[in-house]
């Protein structure tokens, strides 16, 4: 009997010891984890401009600052496009005069064009058509309240407005819409064939970039439906298409997003990549200089060249 009691006592002691060790181990693990977290990190800050799911990260590009425009000569750069003589046109946005600035790659001001018949409600991007005309995207819509959205056709030689293409969004019925649905602002558009393709800068919820198509038909206001949408983690501020028509580039904060497609109508259905830029300030202008390389400008007038590595 005594021996059985002794066995039971020893067994209980062993169980207690194991339980204590287990508890201590958990405490030590927790402490170790906490210590590791404290040593390794101070809590990691949330990435302000994370990579977008579904996009391959393309590290085969180099970004180089090439020049700065003079603040007194070019106070703001909100869009960027090639001029007919191989230089670049840029422009300011809302609150500024209806002017275009011609610059070279060194950032030097070559010409200031006062656009006759133009009004800068909120010019956000510029494109060149195969017809030789310049087209200004007067579609900035921060508050999502505008009912006078339009694309302005400019004769580069005559330096004047020769037509407007007014449009409205079929899926916008409130001005402004609910806070979560503030997705009717556009800062990036491109022209391909005889159509314009608009990419929204989502100020609402869900990171959805919507794609709209506007026909190059001056005169009566068009009502346009969204063609497609894609989720992108940063806000889109510029757009362009490569000269061969195969690659679409969208400019976001810290990234350039590339889409391979047979047509801009199918922009979001093909291969998707994103190129990390690093710090470029508030970049708002982008134009292809060949089928792979792009010139980028930020609002303060710094010019960058984004080049495919040799």
From TrEMBL:
Composition bias (Polar residues) maps to 50-60
Q: Origin, by domain of life?
A: Bacteria
Q: According to the UniProt record, where is the region Disordered?
A: 26-60
Q: Which PROSITE patterns does this entry report, sorted A to Z?
A: PROKAR_LIPOPROTEIN
Q: Which InterPro entries match?
A: WD40/YVTN_repeat-like_dom_sf
Descriptive protein name: Lipoprotein
Q: Which species expresses this protein natively? A: Rufibacter quisquiliarum
């Amino acid at each position: 009997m005594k021996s059985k009691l002794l066995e039971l006592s020893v067994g209980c002691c062993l169980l207690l010891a194991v339980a204590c060790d287990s508890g201590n181990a958990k405490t030590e693990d927790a402490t170790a984890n906490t210590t590791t977290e404290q040593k390794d990190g101070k809590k990691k800050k949330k990435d302000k401009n994370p990579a977008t799911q579904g996009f391959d990260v393309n590290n085969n590009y180099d970004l180089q600052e090439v020049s700065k425009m003079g603040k007194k000569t070019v106070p703001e750069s909100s869009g960027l496009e090639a001029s007919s003589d191989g230089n670049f046109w840029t422009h300011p946005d809302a609150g500024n005069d209806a002017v275009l600035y011609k610059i070279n790659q060194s950032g030097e001001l070559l010409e200031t064009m006062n656009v006759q018949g133009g009004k800068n409600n909120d010019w956000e991007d510029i494109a060149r058509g195969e017809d030789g005309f310049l087209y200004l995207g007067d579609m900035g819509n921060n508050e999502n309240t505008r009912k006078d959205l339009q694309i302005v056709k400019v004769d580069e030689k005559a330096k004047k407005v020769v037509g407007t293409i007014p449009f409205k969004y079929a899926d916008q019925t409130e001005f402004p819409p609910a806070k979560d649905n503030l997705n009717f602002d556009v800062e990036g558009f491109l022209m391909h064939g005889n159509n314009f393709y608009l990419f929204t800068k989502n100020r609402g919820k869900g990171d959805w970039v919507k794609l709209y198509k506007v026909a190059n038909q001056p005169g009566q206001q068009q009502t346009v439906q969204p063609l497609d949408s894609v989720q992108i983690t940063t806000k889109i501020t510029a757009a362009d298409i490569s000269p061969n028509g195969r690659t679409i580039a969208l400019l976001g904060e810290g990234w350039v997003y590339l889409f391979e497609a047979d047509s801009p109508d199918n922009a979001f259905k093909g291969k998707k990549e994103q190129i990390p830029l690093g710090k470029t300030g508030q970049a708002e202008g982008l134009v292809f200089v060949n089928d792979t390389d792009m010139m980028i400008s930020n609002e303060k007038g710094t010019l960058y060249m984004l080049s495919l590595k040799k």
